[in-house]
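Consider the following assembly input.
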Amino acid sequence: MKIRFFNANYKREFKINEEFFNNVKSEFKTGSSIAIFTAIQFLDKIDEISKKLEKIGYKIIKTTPDRCSSQCQILGCDSSWDNLKLPEKVDGFVYIGDGYFHPNALLFAQENREKFIPVLVYNIVQDEIKTIGIDIIEKNLKKRKGNLMKFYMSEKIGVYVSTKWGQEFKNMSLKLKDMYPEKKFYFFIGDNFNESEMDNFSWVDCWINTACPRIGQDDVIRQSKAVVNIRDILK
Amino acid sequence: MFMTEIKNNFSTYYDLEVDRLSSEINKNNYKLVLLQFPDGLKYYSHEVIDYLREKTDNKCEFFVYMGSCFGACDIPLHLKDLGFDLCVQWGHNEFKKNQEGW
């Protein structure tokens, strides 16, 4: 089976809403360093927007996150600071695109940072401009802390390994036994880590997710059992 | 609102490159193709299939993957033995696989 990807590039005529620059100015001081990201559909819009931001006095940071093929592209799983390959000094984030799945990754990426940087989202499909901050994910962060405590106190741990391409971290999962010898680990493998499947194994005290990190970030507020991302407990 | 939405078609906002795809199918004489749409495009799958059927003279059949499509990691590799000549995923591109984990 051959595999083909089509970017599905955004094709509507696009003119930058001047209100976007007003929002940038009110959110970030002139001279600030702003990291700019987008989803693959909107990549061709980045140059024009970056140039205009530079023209009004901002320093634009462009990186290629860990798993991305293109500069300024972000994937939903780029939800940790290291993945984003950013320099130490970043004063602001700008996301160009549609929806909140990708910009929320920029919020989750800041979970362990000293200072929380707002993300200015310019939805060019809906022509909406909005700044999002820690309040969007505050519930998730609280639940994540609680889940982590639950993991440290639990004995029977279910480790979910995904069969999805790029998510199959079987070997890393098996290392957990050596890292936490006081716990009993039970390993599971599947294509879809969901609540109803988890219910079949109600004896599991806490789950470790080794698949998409967003399962242990976005979804935690909907999960009845504690789920912790493997990254959170690696020693 | 709903009426406005259904007036749109699969090519209103995004370039799905269906002509390029149909040419590729015809050129390689593919008979069975798996189509994978992100959630926002799933609604339009019937339009895409109708278009592709026409462009391939009904010589190829299409299946829509009924599952998650959040990223390139959702390519359903477990279907590779079911006889599909091609799997097409819209909205994502190849990613760099991290062998050590994320």
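The CA atoms of residues 47 and 62 of chain A lie 10 Å apart. Ask yourself how this observation constrains the way the partners meet.
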